[in-house]
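Consider the subject:
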Amino acid sequence: MSHFIQEVSDIQNNMRDSTLYRLILTQPHSIETKLLVCGIALLAFYGITILICLLLQNGVGDKLLSVSLSSLIFGRAAGISLALALGFNMIWATILNIYIENTLVIILYPLFVWSIEGISTFKKTEKFFRSIYEVAQKYEKPIQKYGILGLFVFVWLPFWMTGPIVGAAIGYFMRLNVFLNLGVVLSGTNFAILCWAYLLEHLDSKLKYFGQNTMWVLLGVFISLAIFGTLFAKLRKKKGEE
């Protein structure tokens, strides 16, 4: 028991010594801190919902967890496809993926800003934020020509590395107001999710005569494309370094 108490104490001490913990305490009223706290609250609510569903054993908890992981790892098209394949209607599939992507952006945006400002939060995310920084720098000038509309379209487009995280980073470099930036990015993201949900449900109804597994086939396609895109991006980066 004493060993367990000591471990808990060590964890608490490590948290107090962490840059992120001190940052939240010293800048509780900053926009980034408020966004991070809001994002964590949204994530906690979603996690508690999944936990309650798992405890009730109603079959919904497993589905929510699966859709979340699919959306986070393979993208919104895969997340929506899986939601529809698991029996969620178009409305719920849309709501779930909007909730997941919006929460992700609200959590990662302040961490990205702090990373750019030279404030290290999590060592494991530094490489990720560095790649976001490089892509955002690449597309900032072309998008800046078209302003807010260009940023909206960039986030909406279903191309590789044109998602909301990169979009929010571009908005940051365009020196947009935080709320305007996130408003444009999240609007583009939500509109893209609505378009995907409508398109996939329409395809599902049109291709039913091929069988009842249309969404599972499309899910496999989207996962394959996501894996291929990741490998292709890594290969291009490796060649560029050589």
Summary: The chain is about 85% helix and 0% strand. Residues 61 and 131 are 33 Å apart (CA to CA). Residues 4-17 have pLDDT under 50 and may be disordered. The first helix runs from residue 2 to 17.
